[in-house]
Design goal:
11 strands, three-stranded antiparallel sheet, alpha+beta, Herpes Virus-1, single chain, metal-binding
Length: 305
């Protein structure tokens, strides 16, 4: 008796459910590990340990060199777009003036033809005329309007006369954008932050890497803790100490500089744009079949955290 090969049947005109599962189509979920998460002491641009860190008012931390270079490149790009927009406006103005001049010329020619008669005069008297006194179709004098129409004729079958869609440049925004939060960011709104390094004997003998602690409770700062920076002086504390002391006493515990509630900035930590942060890290992608091609297309789905 022959065996049943329903799952191995591959001569159908469509993919079966089992074939789709074997090819990896459908919703794919993967638990993100530690390597997929950005540490709290890493720059949001270069993803390396920050050097001379600076933070924006939304709590995104960058290296000083990285963020200044990013803002400078944005300003250069804005200047380039502004120059292109001004050039386009100048060109449109010139084209409008040319159209007005051409319209006045046509009106003058029409007025001149109306005053001197509709039948044009020709110097070639030896040429045969028809019974109405007009020349043949090939010998009719072409007006400037017809010349312009022939010159600007849009014929899609001729490569030289193929119409081109004009590319219009919109007026760009003159504001620089935060590369991480996509909100408006000015250079003067950035402030330097200072983390307290752990210089204890236990740490120096355990690991050569830098570790940072809260200057108040001496707890090691990691991605699992929420951090708060003071925009007035730049010192970084854990959120528990910031809410317990700075929010009440209105003074920094390190430099005794006065601070207000608006000076407390929650620092962002965790994801890099490809991963989130939290207790449940689960990346989800949906892979579906291409229409008529048999190829799989990946559509990123919303990440579940």
């Amino acid at each position: 008796m022959p065996q049943r090969h329903s799952k191995n049947n591959n001569d159908l005109a469509f993919f079966t459910y089992d074939e789709k599962r074997k090819l990896g189509y459908g919703t794919q979920r993967e638990r993100l590990g530690k390597d997929s998460i950005k540490p709290f002491d890493a720059c949001c641009l270069c993803l390396k340990s920050f050097i001379n860190p600076m933070s924006c008012q939304k709590g995104h931390v960058f290296c000083k060199e990285c963020i200044l270079q990013c803002l400078l490149s944005q300003k250069k790009d804005i200047q380039r777009k502004l120059a292109a927009h001004e050039s386009q406006k100048k060109q449109e103005k010139e084209e409008e003036e040319e159209k007005l001049m051409l319209q006045k010329t046509r009106e003058l020619e029409a007025f001149d033809q109306q005053n001197h008669g509709a039948v044009p005069q020709y110097n070639d008297r030896n040429q045969n005329r028809d019974k109405n006194g007009f020349h043949g179709a090939n010998s009719v004098k072409v007006t400037s309007y017809e010349e312009e129409a022939l010159r600007t004729m849009k014929a899609f079958w001729l490569p030289s006369a193929t119409p081109e869609a004009p590319v219009k440049t919109e007026a760009p925004s003159t504001s620089t954008i935060c590369p991480e939060g996509n909100e408006k960011l000015k250079m003067k709104s950035l402030f330097s932050i200072y983390l307290t390094e752990d210089n204890s004997e236990k740490k120096s003998s355990a690991s050569p890497d830098k570790t940072y602690i809260c200057p108040s409770c001496k707890v090691t700062l990691t991605n699992t803790r929420s951090l708060v920076a003071l925009s007035s002086c730049g010192h970084v504390f854990c959120k528990k100490c910031a809410d317990k002391f700075m929010a009440v006493d209105k003074v920094c515990l390190v430099c005794n500089k006065a601070c207000k509630g608006r000076n407390l900035v929650n620092l962002e930590k965790g994801g890099t744009g490809f991963a989130g942060h939290g207790d449940n890290l689960l990346a989800t992608d949906f892979k579906h079949l291409g229409s008529g091609s048999g190829l799989g297309l990946v559509r990123p789905a919303a990440m579940k955290i």
